[in-house]
Amino acid sequence: MKQDDIFYQAMLARDPRFDGKFFVGVKTTGIYCRPICPAKPRRENVEFFSSPFEAERSGYRPCLRCRPESAPRSPAWIGTSAVVQRALKVLHAQESLDFNEDDFANQFGVTARHLRRLFIKEIGKTPKQLSFENRLNLSRKLISETSLPISEAALAAGFKSIRRFNAAFKDRFKKSPRDIRRSKISKTENLRLSLSYRPPFDFAGLLKTYKNHRMGHLEWFTDDTMFRVVHHNGQVGTVCIKDHADSSCLMVEIEFPDSSAVIFILSKIRAMFDLDSDPVIVANALEKDPDLKKILKKYPGIRLPSGWDGFEVAIASILGQLVSVERGRALVHDLIEMIGTDSGLTNELGPIKLFPTPKQIVDADLEKLKTTRTRKQTLKDFSKALIDGKISLEPTQDVDAFIKQVLKIRGIGPWTANYMALKVLRSTDTFPGTDLILARALDNHHPELLNRVRPWRGYAAALFWRGYTGTVAKKGK
């Protein structure tokens, strides 16, 4: 069977496993759709594209019904060169809505002109054009899924001129913002949005991991929901995250005083829950080991665990060296309570303090923190290195260079450095082999396993932690 015929069968079945992996251009209407779109055009009337950029270059406009910009991202979207791949990741997670081409290109050691040339060659659009489209896509999501006033949705997406927003929106989607607003959306005090993923999705496994490693009172949980305090630009709010497996999406409820923080919050959730992972590709690699395949069958849709904030995870990694998960969690809680700033919020556990900043840790008296003197100094040295720019927590950096730099800090060993690379940088091919749970797990598997599953060793680690947690009380260093 030809690839296009496979795509057509997947489209007819509305199979969510293919969501974002290809797009369907409908010749008779001039629109392009996700494979899960309810529309079912005839085979002779469709053509297929590996990315939305290809579809738009061929003259198609995005479907108003299935909203292609809401699909999980796929490797086919991110170009071929390392520079373009890194740049696109930053673009999609960009916290600032202001875009300067020169400043953006400097992050990757190239000129704005060279980066534009690479983007046009591989994607068909410049970084500035994609940044602009990201704003429009976010605005349409807010208009389609929430009761937020249209003018506020435009401002939240970074548009300072409503007139310019209306013109750009109509040019891209061929309808005005008011025309696509769904009147059936009920008004709510908080923003409620969906974030799609490809099934299977081990939400329960991620929830269990984050509950076991929760950050003081900043995170709390029910059986199927995670709550998190959000601190951004001096303001504080909360987010609620719940899985809707029937719709293959997370439902997110945001309570925050400034709607312009939505792009920051959604990018955090997308990364924390590994929503753009392709479980089929990961499974194909992990199933090369027969015993690993058995664990994956028990926990399908494994995702790479990380955390809300890289600095939080890094500090928790240092405090978690050579102690149980429970003890590490308690130390994190104590650190927050000792030197964290009052958030002004409370939950059933009591008043909530924010996670301390690097400067607060450097300046703090940690005498009462019940850990070793060396570890207390390591917290300060790591925070100082971050302030001085000697260490970066940017996920797109070179992983080996990061590990090498982190290992220079006294008190940080291979376990901590690799654990940070896995969870802070979200490196898919990092395996903290000195972790006692992972080491114990490897004893039960073929010695060539780690070579077989590259570049997805991080997912193998996640699967081992999922399957073997509870068999070992302490972590390695």
From TrEMBL:
It catalyses: Hydrolysis of alkylated DNA, releasing 3-methyladenine, 3-methylguanine, 7-methylguanine and 7-methyladenine. The keyword Transcription regulation applies. PROSITE patterns: HTH_ARAC_FAMILY_1 (PS00041), HTH_ARAC_FAMILY_2 (PS01124). One of its GO terms (molecular function) is zinc ion binding. Its EC number is 3.2.2.21. Residues 85-183 form the HTH araC/xylS-type domain. InterPro entries: Ada-like_dom_sf, Ada_DNA_repair_Zn-bd, AlkA_N, AlkA_N_sf, Alkylbase_DNA_Glycosylase/TA, DNA_glycosylase, HhH-GPD_domain, Homeodomain-like_sf. Coiled coil: none annotated. This is DNA-3-methyladenine glycosylase II. It comes from Bdellovibrio bacteriovorus.
